[in-house]
């Protein structure tokens, strides 16, 4: 599964970030690889920024 690159333009919306997070888990008992865990951490950090209003979200 490809990793999500850091945003280079407007930040992704909460919905886009949630969809990317859900995509990491193929099923309920899925275990993440080291690479996927790092991607999950990046997505969570980006989500926190959007939720706090630290970035301007895409329309």
For the largest beta-sheet, the strand count, sense and barrel status come to:
none
Question: Mean pLDDT score, rounded?
Answer: 82
Unreliable spans are none
* Structure summary, number of beta strands: 0
Radius of gyration: 12 Å
Question: What is the helix/strand order?
Answer: HH
As a percent range, the share of strand residues is under 5%
Shape: elongated
- Figure out the total of helices: 2
Helix content: 40-55%
The CA-CA distance between the termini, in Å, is 26 Å
> What structural class do helix, strand and pairing data support?
mainly alpha
Question: How would you describe this structure to a colleague?
Answer:
With 59 residues, the chain is mostly helical. It has helices spanning 14-24, 34-52. α1 (14-24) runs antiparallel to α2. The radius of gyration is 12 Å and the shape is elongated.
Structural key phrases:
single chain, elongated, mainly alpha, 59 residues, 2 helices
Give the helix/strand layout.
Elements: H1 14-24, H2 34-52
Helix pairs in contact: 1-2
At a glance:
This protein has 59 residues and is mainly alpha-helical. 51% of the residues lie in helices and 0% in strands. It contains 2 helices and no strands.
């Amino acid at each position: 599964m490809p990793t999500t690159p850091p945003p280079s333009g407007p930040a992704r919306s909460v919905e886009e970030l949630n969809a990317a997070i859900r995509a990491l888990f193929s099923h309920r008992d899925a275990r993440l690889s080291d690479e996927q865990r790092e991607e999950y951490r990046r997505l969570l950090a980006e989500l926190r920024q959007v939720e706090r209003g630290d970035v301007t979200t895409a329309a």
